[in-house]
Design brief:
mainly beta, single chain, OB fold (Dihydrolipoamide Acetyltransferase, E2P), 10% helix, 139 residues
Length: 139
Amino acid sequence: MSSLNKVMLIGRLGKDPEVRHTQEGMPVATFSLATSEFWTDKSGNRQERTEWHNIVAWNKLADLCRRYLTKGRQVYVEGRIRTREWDDREGNKRRTTEIIASQILFIGARPEQVEAVAPAAPAEEPVAGPVITDEDIPF
């Protein structure tokens, strides 16, 4: 039987993407994504729980993240879960779980468009960014 490793998230960026390059020159973008769930407890109080996800995007997708994404921007991320281990400076085993993005869809208004606009000036229509798929990634 085959297996499936697929994640689909809609959330908001917790910080601007950080873009670095590998020794081979490949760009890699990392950013945190917050997803929240809301419910009412037995006492009638509204509750919220936020999960933070570490997102990694490579190559052309990384460049697009650098150009279009900023803290607070709402995005749809599709990808796979990867857990990796390493030794820290003190020699302790460390582990992190990341979402390796294969597709990112920019949704909702850009954060600067969400801010209040003076009554005399109408707000701009939200602009959706490009859809980025596996075909955009050169590997």
